[in-house]
Amino acid sequence: MTQSEASITNSGDVIYRKAVVPDAPGMARLSAQLGYPADENGLAERLQYILTLPDHVILTAEYEGEVIGWIHAHARCSLESEPFAEIAGLIVDRKFRGQGVGRTLVKRCGEWTSSAAIGRLRVRMNVNRQDAVSFYEQMGFEPVKTQRVFDKSIRPRLK
Predict the structure, then answer these.
(1) What architecture is domain 14-138?
(2) Cβ-contact 76, 87 below 8 angstroms
(3) Is 104 helix (H, G, I), strand (E, B) or coil?
């Protein structure tokens, strides 16, 4: 184990729970590790809002008082397909990867999906993140399709 890695001495020492707004600084730090820098205040505002939505779940993994991972999923409904839950984000601190934290977060997210009476859990990812592709395949996810993502900025209306 290198100096940049940390070992969880007892998996029972990791606390898995629903996220709370004071988790925002740790969650923002983790987002930056994956290349998605997030302003703590902006993340806290989004977190506070999302936590009010019944069709979303955000779970954290905490070790020695520090957020070391989080997962966000939400229900998706559309006319053309059965409802499913989609993982919107999963991040585990690079120092703690490979120790079961991500697996447990996905498993707990699956439990939330089941309790919401939804029969499918889906994830979308950048295919260039081969480590993520391998992780999800090992977790039993199967590739369904390849797609491109397009974005367009829309100016919000002032109220």
Answers:
(1) 3-Layer(aba) Sandwich (3.40)
(2) no
(3) helix
CA distances from 68 to 22, 78, 105 (A): 14, 33, 11
Q: What average pLDDT does the chain have?
A: 92
- How many residues are there in the chain? 159
How far is residue 60's CA from residue 17's CA, in Å, rounded to a whole number? 6
Cα separation, 125 vs 129, whole angstroms: 8
List the chain domain ranges: 14-138
The residues near 53 (Cβ < 8 Å, ≥ 6 apart) are 74
Question: What global pTM score does this model have?
Answer: 0.88
Q: What are phi and psi of 40, to 5 degrees?
A: -55, -45
Residue 42: both structure tokens together: 């902006």
Element (H, E) at 31: helix 24-33
pLDDT at 104: 97
Q: Which residues contact 123 (CB under 8 A, 6 or more apart)?
A: 86, 87, 90, 136, 141
Let me know: does 59 contact 19? Beta carbons within 8 Å: yes
Give the integer Cα–Cα distance in Å for 109 and 111: 5
Helix (H, G, I), strand (E, B) or coil at 53: coil
Residue 87 and residue 136: Cα distance in Å, rounded? Answer: 11
The letter for the amino acid at 78 is S
